[in-house]
Amino acid sequence: MSVTECNGSDMTRNGGFEPVFCTIIPPHVLDRLAQSDDPARSGRARRTIQRDAYERTQRHLTTVAGAPAVALLADAEPGKPHRTVYDARNGTDLPGTKVRGEGDDPGQDATVNRAYAGLGATFELLLKAYARDSIDGHGLPLDATVHYDEEYNNAFWNGEQMVFGDGDGEIFLDFTNAIDVIGHELAHGVTQYTANLTYYGQPGALNESVSDVIGALIKQYTLGQTADEADWLIGAELLAPDVTGKALRSMKAPGTAYDDDVLGKDPQPATMDDYVRTGRDNGGVHINSGIPNHAFYLAATTLGGHAWERAGQVWYDVLTGGDLQQDAHFTDFATLTLKAARARYGDGDELQAVTKAWERVGVRTL
Ligand SMILES: [Zn+2]
After folding, report:
1. What is the reported pTM?
2. Which of 132, 198, 345, 351 is 20 to 30 A removed from 31 (C-alpha atoms)?
């Protein structure tokens, strides 16, 4: 099987939705940690890489066996979240032991409570801002497993559920700490059910970028922030105190999120001038996503106010509108944002802000 970090669903091949597998920590970061001189550190990174590879294979086998990607609740009530949090108790069996269901009171474990809240915040943004009932638009139950494996330095969406590691405490902290990371992973589910962007090259970078955009919007919505108040960082709460950096990525200033002895330097470009051509990271999906990320940041901050309202609405319309092809390139996506802005808001500030944003990052529109 191909070793993709996040394999998208493919309706044409199987006649149905194939699960995706998406991790939050990009392979270039784990590869770098695995080469560390510190044997404990490199050992943990190798273990995380091995677990990721194993889980990816599990998803693949599930797909081949034809098992359904999702189990819908028969008694699901529209417009209400249906959350279940499980505890893997530092093992790797999924989903683990159920520890909190929908409507249950918070328990003693802060990790469980954060996962529950993060699933709820994602559901809330999709419903309140975009009238979308869960990630599939049809009330998909939201499941999460916490305390996956030991010192596991990642979190992932496997096409069916969220899974969170505790982090090693040295490089990464508990992966439920960052609500935008929870939102990022669940947004891969939204993409899976809508535009279904291929996870390679430019469509893959757009897939990654859409997840960062929705993740950032969930954080801003939860905090009640305007575009000017937001930090526009992804995973700011994930880095351990000794790491020299602010976050995993910066939408405001791609390439500046971290510069650390152990982690290396943030490789993201902000404009097409610095576009990275690489076969690694599925053709740089976590790298070149900096370009559409920065375009969204520019559009949202030019418009001001709540980013999920106008800029977010335009991006959401493109993702879900049916015109975005699976193999779309930056130019295709950018052109569709102009069309969506005009369709929803006419020839006003929105169209101008979006047009200028793509100009500034060097992406051509047609
Ligand atoms: Zn992702």
Report:
1. 0.91
2. 198
